[in-house]
Amino acid sequence: MPKVHLVDYVAGNIRSLVNAIEKCGYEVEWIRSPEDVKNADKIILPGVGHFGHCLSSLSSAGYLPAIHEHIASGKPFFGICVGLQALFTGSEEAPSVPGLGLIPTSLRRFSPKNNDGSRKSVPCIGWNDASTLHQQSPSTSSRDLSATGKSFYGLNPTSKYYYVHSYFVPYTPGELEKQGWTVATATYGDQTYVGAVGRGNVLGTQFHPEKSGAAGLRVIKAFLEGRVWSESTATGSSPVVSVSEVNDALPTLDNGANGLTRRIIACLDVRANDSGDLVVTKGDQYDVREKAAGSQVRNLGKPVEMAKRYYTQGADEVTFLNITSFRDCPVADLPMLEILRRTSETVFVPLTIGGGIRDMVDPATNKAISALDVAKLYFASGADKVSIGSDAVLAAEEYYASGKRLSGKTGIETISAAYGGQAVVVSVDPKRVYVSSPSETAHHTVRTAVPDAQGREFVWFACTIKGGRETRDLDVVQLVTAVEAMGAGEILLNAIDRDGQNNGYDLELIGLVKSAVSVPVIASSGAGNPSHFEEVFRKTDVDAALGAGMFHRGEYTVAQVKEHLARAGLLVRPFEE
Ligand code: 1PR
Predict the structure, then answer these.
(1) What is the CATH number of domain 3-231?
(2) 68 carries an active-site annotation
(3) Known catalytic residue at 429
(4) 513-540 burial string, b = 16+ CB within 10 Å, else e?
(5) Cβ(9) to ligand 1 under 6 A?
(6) What is the pTM of this model?
(7) 263-567 has which fold?
């Protein structure tokens, strides 16, 4: 097998990249010292997390001169995400830390406010273009290559790519092109930025090709095979979900979520059944046992197979929630890690894993294990993000008890410091609490369109822990604002009252949470048919929508949801094979 060298310098989900490279027919060899760089032909510099952390680690380990030499010698180099950012002079994220300086531009942070006053979520998480190609031409400073039928490293104008970042390289027409770079751009809200950039032997992508399905694998393959330019695959690819045609046929009614496609997530609640096998289950208001005699745990299928099925149906992300791991120690939960490993071999979209991420003591060894250690295990097994439930509520309570002081020690803070906030999702399990008037409670209330049996018209949303078994005196607004301050990058917003009810999302809850934070929010609980997805995207500015039961029971496929959205004029990612 031909080889490619990967720089091993920081934590992160490198497994997915290795899987993607192997899928392209290449073998990975690790670079573990600057000496190894000299012996390498093709190098990939993956990057997740913090620009300063990445560049300082590279610098203190002595890699920077070796990488400079490698690039100057004309050997192929590919930087992914922070690996692309490393090519530039610096970043607002760490002003005192210099980059490689190959391109004299600095990265800026996305503002949560667009110029027209509308809002966008930060970090930017989702699927966007890398298609409008610009290259220097003899007569003008920049030439749009989109219509020429030429593809740069396999990039396709109708494909979408997975981005997750808070910092970006602003695109100024002609600037990079004058220096000989070819640039592919994406637009998020009011900001057009560099999605991919290449010159000679160097390629960088802000998006994650290893998480961008077949479209991303094409880019990796083109780099590995040294195919800089080729005929565009725009007509050659065969979307299984022909939503791109539906999108094309419709007038553009929708710019997506600030340019991102409407993100659809399939969620698999996993737990051991009564025979001890890990199965996908699904509750009604979190009760996962059958109502009939015997009350077995509902068994809806095998996790790895179901994840793959949803990937081939076009799911933009897959989430696993290990729903009983608040009881058990996930370090002992090797089958769950194995599920992640096997899933990441065939599912090339982001994978999130939740359940049991907290400081604990391993019952087998009596040794203390931190939330960060647990997260590390999950990342090393193929997770891109970890989701924290119960521990986030307890951390938020401590945050308020200490007068909003950040301890730096919570799982959210330690994991986001090491892996970046974009890798930390907080899963919220709220329950409605009805009151007659806001003055009855100190919590954040909303007037509800569905009063309770006693006619009470106001609700607050109480946070719960341990899978809804324990309700706390903390409301969702308090929770999400606290975890945002701690560095969480995304909110997975369940609703216990709606879970498994198939009557649509809790729009009041979603509106309340969206107005409280800038990080992306995923709507969860209640989806029973494709029009519920349309409703949540039209009536709220939620960033993604998650479904579980309706997919597991085979009532609808992810593809049907996307087709429905596309027909309704909402922007979705076409699935490509
Ligand atoms: O507290 O950090 O150990 O994490 C435990 C995780 O497990 C939390 O994210 C919590 O939401 C989840 N969880 C715990 N118990 C249950 C249960 O169902 N008994 N599941 C549970 C949460 C909610 C969603 C579900 C949506 C959509 N499940 O995952 O998929 O409600 O369902 P629908 O579309 O069928 O309505 P920790």
Answers:
(1) 3.40.50.880
(2) no
(3) yes
(4) bbebbbbbbbbbbbbbbbebbbbbbeeb
(5) no
(6) 0.95
(7) TIM Barrel (3.20.20)
